[in-house]
Each structure stands twice: as structure tokens, then as C-alpha cells.
């Protein structure tokens, strides 16, 4: 009998019997658990779990049969067939290193997703040498005068394309509180780790002037609190007194690419669950 691969993620108030109920349910339907990870957060008294399994049952019947368990344990949960790729909208400005990296990783199969569009506040001809293939490109210029109107256009695009995730691949525009709220839990950003110490223009030059010895990058969910959403992934590298500001920028770009692609990979494989102001990330 043909089987389908699934990801099941859930969170709920912690109580005995959750793991047993989930594993028994999958077993009774002829399923085979391939990977199971769980976390009991003592501080919030909440339980988090991710299960990867194969099963001959279809997704609709799995969901219908799981409702009783979900009700009994007060679960917030999601079940997805692995073949149903998440629909992703990527946004970028003139800095294209993260955009190029994501497109490359997508093309070689490292990031399994359906890229439904590229959005930029700059025209397509600003991205010289980038092959977007058949991916639709949307130019949505932003000014102080038209910001709210253009954000509504973006939100309409997100809704019409049934977007699961918006990725800010060095999109150099601050989203309004209203848009950030509407995209809560489905928008990821990446930035350097100097915040809040070095704000504004040329942060790497500011860091160099202060003799910083460690630089990094952070990928996180976007919230109305600027650059303070639940963190998904971070990384750092050392720098020395011999590094120039350009060296810091180069190393920073490498970190931003790596951190954003890792965060996106975790999300695409349903390994990220939001836990209040932080996130639970089940590593691969």
C-alpha cells in the first residue's frame, strides 16, 4: 500500500500522556514514526513536539481522526504532507546577497519551497545578473507618502498568492506595526547582530571604529517590536584589529546568508514553533 510522508507539530499545556496518545494514534493507522522530538518548557509549562512519519492514510482522514486527541490535550497543532510545499514570497532591496543565496539553494533542492514571487522596492533591472526564471517579480516602490497604500498592495499580494511565509532577504524598509501584526508568525527577517548598539547607516563601520572583536547575524520572526521578534537562528565569527570595515562587511554578508538559509530550512521542515517571545527550534 502506498504511503505518504507527513510532519505533525503541536504545542499544548504539559500533561501526562501526550506522547503516548500521538504515537498510538499513528501506529493504529499503520503509520511509521521516522523522527520524533519534544520539549517540555518548565517556565511556561507548555509542551512542544514534532513528529515526522509515513502513513497510508490521507491527510484529511488523519486530521479528522486527530481532532479528539487535540481536544483532549488542548493542542495547537498542524499536520502537513511533506509534498505540499510551503508557498514563499521573498522580499529584497539593492543588497542581493541573501536573495541570490536563497535562489541558489532552492534551485539545487536544498530549500524545498514554492517561490510564488519576488518583491522589491527597486525595479527588476536593479538586480543585474540574477536569473529569476519564471518567478514573478513585483516592483512596489515605497516613499513616506505612499507607504501605507503600498503596504496594503503587498498584503493583497500575500493574500491572493496564498503565501505561507514572507522572507525579508535584506529588505531595507521598516514594516509598519499594522503590517507586522498581520504577518505575525509568517514573516522572517535577518539582520546583523550589532543592534541596538550600532543603529542606522554603516553599522559595520561603526563596529570597526569601536574595535569590535565578534560579529554575528540573527534571523527572527517579524513583530511590531522592531528586530525583537522570536529568534530562530544566530551565528557569530571573530574579527581582529587587522580587519578593515570592508572585511567586516564581507564576513557579515556570509553570516547573513548562512543564518537566513538555516532559519528558512528549519521553517520549511516545520521545525520552528513559537513559544511566546522566543521560539523552539528542533534541529535537523
Describe the structure.
- The protein is of the alpha/beta class and 284 residues long.
- 31% of the residues lie in helices and 30% in strands.
- It is built from 7 helices and 13 strands.
- The protein has helices spanning 18-28, 59-73, 97-107, 147-160, 177-182, 203-209, 245-268, and strands at 4-13, 32-41, 46-55, 76-81, 87-92, 114-120, 137-139, 165-168, 187-192, 214-221, 231-238, 272-275, 278-281.
- The strands form 3 sheets. A 7-stranded mixed β-sheet has the order 7-6-5-8-9-10-11, covered by helices on one side.
- The model has no long low-confidence stretch (mean pLDDT 92).
Distance between the termini: 28 Å
* Major sheet attributes: 7 strands, mixed
**What number is the mean pLDDT?**
92
Dominant shape: globular
Our count of helices gives: 7
What is the CA-atom radius of gyration, in angstroms? 21 Å
Structural class computed from helices and strand pairing: alpha/beta
| Low-confidence runs of at least 5 consecutive residues | none
Q: Write the H/E string, N to C.
A: EHEEHEEHEEHEHEHEEHEE
Strand order of the largest sheet: 7-6-5-8-9-10-11
Beta-strand content: 25-35%
Helix content: 25-40%
How many β strands by DSSP? 13
Amino acid at each position: 500500500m502506498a504511503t505518504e510522508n507527513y510532519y505533525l507539530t503541536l504545542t499544548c499545556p504539559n500533561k501526562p500522556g501526550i506522547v503516548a496518545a500521538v504515537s498510538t494514534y499513528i501506529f493504529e493507522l499503520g503509520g511509521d514514526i521516522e523522527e520524533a522530538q519534544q520539549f517540555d518548557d518548565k517556565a511556561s509549562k507548555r509542551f512542544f513536539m514534532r513528529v515526522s512519519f509515513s502513513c497510508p492514510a490521507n491527510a484529511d482522514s488523519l486530521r479528522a481522526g486527530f481532532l479528539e486527541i487535540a481536544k483532549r490535550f488542548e493542542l495547537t497543532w498542524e499536520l502537513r504532507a511533506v509534498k505540499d510545499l510551503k508557498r514563499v514570497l521573498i522580499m529584497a532591496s539593492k543588497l542581493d546577497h541573501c536573495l541570490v543565496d536563497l535562489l541558489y539553494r532552492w534551485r539545487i533542492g536544498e530549500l524545498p519551497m514554492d517561490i510564488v514571487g519576488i518583491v522589491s522596492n527597486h525595479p527588476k533591472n536593479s538586480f543585474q545578473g540574477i536569473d529569476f526564471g519564471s518567478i514573478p517579480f513585483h516592483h512596489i516602490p515605497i516613499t513616506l507618502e505612499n507607504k501605507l497604500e503600498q503596504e496594503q498592495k503587498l498584503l493583497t499580494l500575500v493574500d491572493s498568492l496564498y503565501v505561507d511565509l514572507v522572507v525579508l532577504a535584506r529588505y531595507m524598509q521598516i514594516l509598519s506595526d499594522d503590517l507586522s501584526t498581520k504577518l505575525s508568525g509568517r514573516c522572517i527577517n535577518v539582520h546583523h547582530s550589532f543592534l541596538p548598539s550600532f543603529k542606522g547607516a554603516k553599522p559595520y563601520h561603526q563596529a570597526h571604529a569601536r574595535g569590535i572583536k565578534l560579529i554575528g547575524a540573527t534571523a527572527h520572526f517579524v513583530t511590531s517590536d522592531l528586530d525583537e521578534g522570536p529568534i530562530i537562528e544566530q551565528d557569530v565569527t571573530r574579527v581582529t584589529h587587522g580587519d578593515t570595515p570592508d572585511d567586516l562587511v564581507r564576513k557579515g554578508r556570509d553570516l547573513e546568508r548562512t543564518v537566513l538559509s538555516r532559519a528558512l530550512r528549519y521553517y520549511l521542515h516545520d521545525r520552528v514553533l513559537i513559544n511566546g517571545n522566543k521560539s523552539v527550534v528542533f534541529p535537523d
